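S., here's the first fold you wanted:
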Amino acid sequence: QVVESVVELVDVFPTLTHLAGLHPLHHCPSSSFKIELCTEGSSLAYLIRNPERDINREAYSFSQYPRPSDSIQENSDLPDLVDIHIMGYSIRSNDYRYTLWVGFDPDHCQPNMTDIHAGEMYLLAEDPGEDNNVFDEFDHATVLRKLGMLP
């Protein structure tokens, strides 16, 4: 069965917990470092049980991907916090996936959105495998406005 709603990875754990019949997870407070078990996601079991209900075609999912550098290193897929110097921020809708790779300060856990290292833009209807990066072919302000990131 196919579900065509946009979902986020953070929702997988509470969804599986719900489907397994376990107690619902508590939502994490803003400072959750000392909390043993909580979630920032929501159960999406209702989508699996009734995929036609509440399909939000204008929904977006957000992700971020840490990298130690612009080039591939031994720890590229699982860098320690101190080694993260580039962060990829992605927005995905049913139509697009847009990723911006920017400089990152691991000491303050802050991105530098003016230090752009690279970008990715995929038109999912034409390129569902995300093989053709058209980042350099687009007016980025128009794309960001469509994705709701600019007024």
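And the second, which I think is the more interesting of the pair:
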Amino acid sequence: PSEEMITLMWSFVVSIYTIGGLLGSSSAGYLSVRFGRKKAMLLVNIPALLSATLMGLSRLCGSFEMIIAGRLFSGVCGGLALNIHFMYAGECAPRKLRGLIAITASTAIGAGKFVGFALGLREVLGVEALWPVLMAANALPALVQLLTLPFFPDSPRYLLIDKKDKEGCIKAVKQLWGDGDHMAEIDDMVAEQEAIRGEKAKSVCDLFRDKAVRWQVITLFLVSSCMQLIGVNVV
């Protein structure tokens, strides 16, 4: 193909990740309620492993289309994982540690980018013979999560509010936070359950129309928009 077509193909390879991210983010809310936070996070590993397989075997099969498909599935995984991680980690953390635990997603993104840059150096995996291994490297954290997450309980809030399983919620709280008096936080969840009883889940359009969270949405929108202008995407 011509040089212009090659440039177009690689631009598509890079940018299709964000399309997958949009698809994943749009599905995160449904999956986290339908299957629970824990099971949804386990399901996220399916597109992660599929993307690693496609990209890792793309050179052997002589197919750049496999790289495009792999990047798409990788984006779906990223969009799902980031949103569900915030829910699961925040709902599993005790109130005094909730803010600290919630930022682990941002910390993991920073660490992941650093590891990606390091592995991409020519002295490591950034050479012609090893780039398929580099592109399949996201299989490793997916496998680690598949092996470790089943030993953790589901989110106490999900068990109480969505599943109506108070005993399961208390058991999960004790497993996560240890023995002690946690009834105050459980009572808070019960009060939330009563407050939202009978209300349907809000859509994205409902969120934008809700005046009660108008300024929070505007603030998040501005912060997220400014993050796109700091130069990291160019790097």
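Why I say that: Residues 1-148 form a domain with the Growth Hormone; Chain: A; fold (CATH 1.20.1250.20). The chain has a mean pLDDT of 89.

Talk tomorrow,
H.
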